[in-house]
Amino acid sequence: MTVWVDASAGASGDMLLGALVGAGVDVAVLQAAVDAIAPEPVALRVEQVDRNGFAATRCHVELPDSEHHRTWRDIRSRLTAAPLAPEVRDLAVRTFERLAVAEATVHGADPMDVAFHEVGALDAIADVVGVCAGFVALLGARGGQVVVSPVAVGSGTVRGAHGKLPVPPPAVAELLRGVPSYAGPGAHEACTPTGAALLTTLADAWGPQPAMTVDRVGVGAGGRDPDTHANVVRLLVGEAAATAPAPPLLIESNVDDLDPRVWPSVIAALLAAGASDAWLTPIIMKKGRPAHTLSVLTSAEHAERVRAAIWRHTSTIGVREVPLAKHALEREMVEVEVDGHAIDVKLARHDGEVVNAQPEWDHVARVALALDRPANDVLAEAIAATRALLRERG
């Protein structure tokens, strides 16, 4: 399972809750997790809304009147004791721990004693636990990968418990250290501390949508509805798509200043480095100088080692590379005998029909030497034995 989180308009806990419901997670799953942790009654209410032309799911977190601030120590105790699934508890603990450490860093306090203020209020507790439960339900028993886009953080200022703050607020900037973020389309707070903590806890990777076959799309709405952009978080859910193997590479260089006696050792070193083939082509370079084009065929996996072998064993100071399309026939090795000596023969098939049969020349030369016979004679007998074998097979 792969989930891509499009946070190009920002992210908050309630936006992620709405996106999860839109992606097919039963709101009852989220509500059950919230009920297990919330110290006071908290209800999740879902409605369908429009955000600048996007049909989206808005998840309201309905709270009782409460101004009670809680420390990370208080919240951790509740999470430890709550009847939550282990995976949900682990995600929620790690998310709140990130929040505590970020708040402690920007305020110079002990993380365990940080008073979360609005971040640690009932709505944030519900957001964090609900979103964690939703992602566990979404990914299922097999688990999967969560990839998050660069995060829009907004711009301007925002009023918090400590007065007017720049956007991104200090805690958000701290939480998003080391991950891609940018201002985004709106002149307001686009990513909340809760949203930043959730994204950085959930993310396995950051970047654009990976190769995937999308099965479900969830669109979660934020509270604002600006006319500049759709204030939504999107979840694209599906299976990772099989990616085509990287094409083989043709690496070439023109060399005019290498002793020709060195070339056999160069070819051997390239094959040892992982090249599937290597060859020389005589050429005439500028000023009429005779030279060779060194051509090497290799896979992307071995390309770096092949380049290193070129630098080490030749006098060139530059190479050119071209990706290639390769079409190969189905191959099979068979064995024939000439005067009691085994020789391997490579068969090539097209649509099941043998279109080429070539005895291995090293085997032919070895048998010719053992029998003290001309190699051409041994080769002819090996080809005849191969034809007889193919006739027997029908």
TrEMBL record:
GO biological process: protein maturation
EC category: lyase
Transmembrane among keywords: no
Catalytic activity field: Ni(II)-pyridinium-3,5-bisthiocarboxylate mononucleotide = pyridinium-3,5-bisthiocarboxylate mononucleotide + Ni(2+)
Entry's EC annotation: 4.99.1.12
InterPro entries per record: Ni_insertion
Gene3D superfamilies (UniProt xref): mk0293 like domain (3.10.20.300), Transcriptional regulatory protein pf0864 domain like (3.30.70.1380)
Pfam families to which the protein is assigned, alphabetical: Ni_insertion
Keyword Chaperone applies: no
Key words of the record: Lyase, Nickel
An example Gene Ontology molecular-function term: nickel cation binding
Function description: Involved in the biosynthesis of a nickel-pincer cofactor ((SCS)Ni(II) pincer complex). Binds Ni(2+), and functions in nickel delivery to pyridinium-3,5-bisthiocarboxylic acid mononucleotide (P2TMN), to form the mature cofactor. Is thus probably required for the activation of nickel-pincer cofactor-dependent enzymes.
Annotated HAMAP family: LarC (MF_01074)
Family to which the UniProt record says this protein belongs: Belongs to the LarC family.
Name assigned to this protein: Pyridinium-3,5-bisthiocarboxylic acid mononucleotide nickel insertion protein
The organism of origin for this protein: uncultured Nocardioides sp
Lineage: Bacteria, Bacillati, Actinomycetota, Actinomycetes, Propionibacteriales
